[in-house]
From TrEMBL:
Domain Peptidase M24 residues, every copy: 322-535
Database matches in InterPro entries: Creatin/AminoP/Spt16_N, Creatinase/aminopeptidase-like, Creatinase_N, Pept_M24, Pept_M24B, Peptidase_M24_C, X-Pro_aminopeptidase_P
Peptidase M24 C-terminal domain: residues covered: 548-607
An example Gene Ontology molecular-function term: metalloaminopeptidase activity
Annotated organism of origin: Parvularcula maris
Name the record gives this protein: Aminopeptidase P family protein
Keywords, alphabetical: Aminopeptidase, Hydrolase, Metal-binding, Protease
Region span, Disordered: 149-170
Homology family: Belongs to the peptidase M24B family.
One of the record's GO cellular component terms: cytoplasm
Domain Creatinase N-terminal positions: 21-146
Length: 607
């Protein structure tokens, strides 16, 4: 199994590990320390050796942080983890806070004293992430001090080793563009930005630019490393030597120089002393490297990672791969949903058993490389935890009268998938049907949207929330995130969110469409498909010079008929559901067993 279910932390972590960190801070002459949920690559999902926040607090979510002072400490997360944070972190040692109530920088400003020295690891903070703390320090009069090595690493006994997975070439027929051609056009973008070279620190950018994949991060085929791309298209790749094979050397060719990763800062210093200007993304690059360039006399040019946007706009080969991967994956999901409809009412299926069975259906495709994240297999009240992770300590049986939410995805060499479905175990309540239908209305509203060039996901977010808002309801997560091509399941710069977004949606971008509703202690609902932004096309009767983009659906698996309250849907919404189900049956039935094909035919009949 790709997913394991052993608990990775417990509430004792805070009591055991916080004193160890404070001992190190005292020895270093520090009055406090900042602990983000980051690794040295500012990844969302971290290798085990970089789970410093979890080691310190016990919190295992993907978004959080902590601030430790000599006499008090606080742990933070967002609305997705409002239930999980207090369940995992001992409030005898940490004050537990949501970032929409108080930010870590505000808490530090309120609790640190003038003249104190607060440490931070400059490899775990981008310039953008550090800025709020710098403002707090200026207002309160304390000092921020970069500290290497990280004192948590020194206090952490039996810390896991850093990953050293081999790096493999990604086939050209799936990448859709030769790596040399990519380097040429990215080099031109670097020159246009007014820089001589760009430092790339995002593993996804390395994977895309060089057409390579790795295995250093769970559930994402990422190679950890750094790269320098020069304005003439020449490049330098910095990775641990253990990851390099003869096949990789041959694939990279003579125009890519290979170096040990430990040499990055030395190489930057050499280039800086030669007068080179270095493009860095202030939101993605550790401040350690900005300091390395500036201290060597070089010029830092601040701008977006030049790979980020080209990577997000998928070419036709990547889109075709995504379409094929989603048909295969949708069939596996549909086989699972039929199995669930038979087995769950017996009240013998557990959350872990369901996640294992779904993974086995994906494995039966014969081409599954990994899951794209740990399956959220959440029954009853666990469904109200938007990012619940089932373990052997929390596993529960699916019961009649409850909802079961399963959010999962697969990594295939031709595409990355992410889908959420909700099943009613037994007879759902009228409220469950109403809330599911409101979420469905929001999902349909976004799926049917047409919008002009230049529109960001911020402008579309309300389409998915409006039916819930009209009923006095909402959800505390984004509506859509970008998705990579056999890369990370969460990819920028695009997203669909109520928060301000600079990046416009562009044709070829893959996004999720996933409105939800969560009732604490009872159930959770989320309906998620992946969509791709389509090319602009005229609308009959519209302005001739104002073509509109839209979304092409990628995900094909049936919705839960028992939860749809047809009377709450408009005629257009009912037609959308019927058309979607018709497409589901037409596109995936050939991949199904005969029994599942018959079952799906019934599920896809018109409302």
């Amino acid at each position: 199994m790709f997913q394991t279910f052993d608990p990775v932390s417990d509430r004792s972590f805070a009591g055991k590990h916080l004193p160890l960190l404070r001992e190190r801070l005292k020895a270093l002459g520090l009055d406090g320390f900042l602990v983000p949920h980051e690794d040295e690559y500012l990844n969302e999902y971290l290798p085990d050796h970089a789970e410093r926040l979890m080691w310190l607090t016990g919190f295992s979510g993907s978004a959080g942080s902590a601030v430790v002072l000599s006499g008090k400490a606080a742990a933070f997360s967002d609305g997705r983890y409002s239930i999980q944070l207090p369940a995992q972190v001992d409030d005898q040692h940490f004050e537990l806070l949501m970032t929409h109530d108080v930010t870590p920088s505000d808490w530090l400003r309120q609790n640190a004293e003038e003249g104190q020295v607060i440490g931070y690891d400059p490899m775990l903070f981008s310039e953008a992430a550090l800025k709020p703390f710098q403002k707090a320090a200026a207002k309160k009069g304390f000092t921020l001090k970069p500290v290497r090595p990280n004192p948590i690493d020194e206090a952490w006994q039996d810390r896991p080793d850093e990953p050293t997975a081999k790096i493999n070439p990604h086939p050209l027929e799936l990448a859709g563009e030769d790596a040399a051609d990519k380097r040429t056009r990215i080099g031109e973008d670097v020159a246009e930005a007014g820089a001589d070279l760009a430092l790339l620190t995002s593993p996804s950018s390395l994977a895309w630019l060089f057409n390579i994949r790795g295995g250093d991060v769970h559930a994402a085929p990422l190679p950890l490393g750094r790269a320098i791309i020069h304005r003439d298209g020449q490049a330098e790749l910095f990775v641990r030597p253990e990851k390099v094979t003869d096949e990789l050397r041959s694939h990279l060719g003579n125009e890519v120089a290979l170096h040990a990763e430990a040499q990055v800062d030395t190489r930057l210093a050499v280039l800086a002393k030669e007068g080179k200007s270095v493009l860095v993304d202030p939101g993605l690059t550790p401040v350690f490297y900005l300091s390395a360039v500036e201290e060597a006399g070089g010029k830092v040019v601040r701008g977006a990672d030049p790979v980020s946007l080209p990577r997000a706009i998928k070419n036709e080969a990547e889109l075709q791969g995504a379409r094929e991967a989603h048909l295969r994956d949708g069939a596996a999901i549909t086989e699972f949903l039929r199995w669930l409809s038979i087995e769950a009412p017996k009240e013998t299926v557990t959350e872990i058993a369901a996640a294992q069975r779904l993974e086995s259906f994906r494995r039966e495709t014969g081409v599954l490389k990994d899951i794209s994240f740990d399956t959220i297999s959440a029954s009853g009240p666990h469904g109200a935890m938007a990012h619940y992770r089932v373990t052997s300590a929390t596993d529960r049986t699916l019961k009649k009268g409850e909802l079961f939410l399963i959010d999962s995805g697969g990594q295939y060499q031709d595409g990355t998938t992410d889908i959420t479905r909700v099943a009613a175990i037994g007879e759902p309540t009228p409220e469950m049907r109403e809330r599911y239908t409101l979420v469905l209305k929001g999902h349909i509203g976004l799926a049917r949207a047409r919008f002009p060039k230049g529109t960001s996901g911020h402008a579309l977010d309300a389409l998915a929330r409006l039916p819930l808002w009209m009923a006095g309801l909402d959800y505390d997560h984004g509506t859509g995130h970008g998705v990579g091509s056999f890369l990370s399941v969460h990819e920028g710069p695009q997203k669909i969110s109520k928060h301000a977004i600079d990046q416009a949606l562009e044709p070829g971008m893959i996004c999720s469409n996933e409105p939800g509703y969560y009732k604490e202690g009872e159930y959770g609902i989320r309906i998620e498909n992946l969509v791709v932004v389509t090319e602009a096309a005229p609308i009959e009767g519209g302005d001739a010079d104002r073509s509109m983009m839209g979304f092409e659906n990628l995900t094909f698996a049936p919705l839960e008929r028992e939860l749809i309250e047809s009377e709450l849907l408009t005629r257009d919404e009912r037609e959308w559901v019927d058309d979607y189900h018709s497409q589901v049956f037409d596109r995936i039935s050939e991949y199904l067993t005969e029994d599942t094909r018959d079952w799906l035919s019934s599920r896809c009949r018109p409302l």
